[in-house]
Amino acid sequence: MIIETLVISLGVFIVAFLFAPLGMGGGMIFVPLLHYGLGWEINGALFAVSLSLTAVVSWGSGLAHRKEEHYDDASLKLGLRGAIPGAILGVVLVVLIGDKMDLVFKVLSLIMISWAIYKTSMKMKEESQNQDQDGASSGEIQPIPLQIGTGIGGVLSSVLAIGAGVIYVPVMRTFAQLEPRKAIGTSLHFMMVVVPVAIFAHLLTLPSDMYSKLGEEFLLILIFMALTLLGSRSGARYGMKYLTEQQLMKIFLAVIVVVALKYITDLSGF
Known about the structure:
The chain is mainly α. It has one domain (2-267). The chain contains eleven helices and no strands. Helix 1 runs parallel beside helix 10 (218-242), helix 2 packs antiparallel against helix 3 (44-67) and helix 5 (101-128) runs parallel beside helix 7 (165-175). The chain starts with a helix and ends with a helix.
């Protein structure tokens, strides 16, 4: 068990390092990592832990992006009007779904990731056809689609225990017309606000036995959070210094394709 824990600890650091520069919190990997690696059940307690690690990633990387002004306040303020209520609604859905959470989690994850793959691919294709233009595509913010998109991201953040950057980044690129780095930074800023709301809402609904589970694993959770902070800060700095915007989007796309294949494999076993 000690070896497994050390391997998972290394995995937590690597996930934080890799996801931080992409505007994602890593929840899509944290949940299966703890579920398959340590045998934790997919329930509210696991979701609270995954969201806590995601919150650390978002703050560690988000503050680094904020320092470099890689975010957009107007899009952030509009999007939070959908994302925060969405996060609260998502917790209600988790309580209602109950024992069917494992199957629902994997199906929704696959749907969400498929949408993100499509939107990201289309945006990259569009930009490759307009290489002579500098910066992001011109256009105004579309408030209603943006708020609907971030609202869905908020719901999925609570239901899937993720930061929902896989939703926020394509939404910011499509409906706020943000260039990649600002879309990534704004996505992290959404998580800095929405994920703590989701954590608090989840904790309010946990039964006593799940609190006991969290208590038993408290020290390990703190170690994971420390490794996550270290990984996210390092990853954010590396991404801003060494990766171009085109490279960031290609890595973003590659990561979500791999995750999609994992969930397809899992669902084929049902």
